[in-house]
Write a structure and sequence with these properties.
Helices cover 39% and strands 13% of the residues. By secondary structure, the protein is α+β, with helices and mostly antiparallel strands. The longest helix is centred in the first third of the chain and has 19 residues. The radius of gyration is 19 Å and the shape is elongated.
């Protein structure tokens, strides 16, 4: 059984992990709930991942408040579970899109007029 000091050290380690990935940004994702389950849609990977209630509550806290203010009362198991999902599914790692390019446009680009 973990002591409260050990648990706090692990929670702080997880928060540092998130701060290293996110900085002062939030990941590009959407949390949603259906009648049966809670989900996260990660726009960076286009994945939908099911999450149990404690993880979902932690994710919700992380999306609306500063990482350092997220609930310390949540068990380390919840933090570990979320960290494992992030690594396994490669989710919650994109915080912004710097730009994009349409690779296969349906309408070909118009020719630019030639300068005289």
């Amino acid at each position: 059984m973990e002591t409260s000091i050990s648990l706090q050290r692990n929670v702080d380690s997880f928060k540092n992990y998130l701060l290293n990935i996110w900085g002062n940004e939030k990941p590009l994702c959407k949390l949603f709930t259906t009648e049966k389950n809670n989900y996260l849609y990660d726009t960076g990977t286009n994945k939908i991942v099911k999450h149990e209630n404690p993880e979902f509550e932690l994710l919700n806290d992380l999306m609306i408040m500063d990482v350092n203010d997220a609930s310390d009362s949540i068990s380390m198991k919840t933090f570990s579970s979320l960290e494992q999902a992030m690594e396994k599914e490669n989710i919650l790692k994109i915080t912004k899109i710097d730009g994009f390019e349409i690779l296969n446009p349906r309408v070909p680009p118009k020719n630019k007029p030639k300068k005289a």
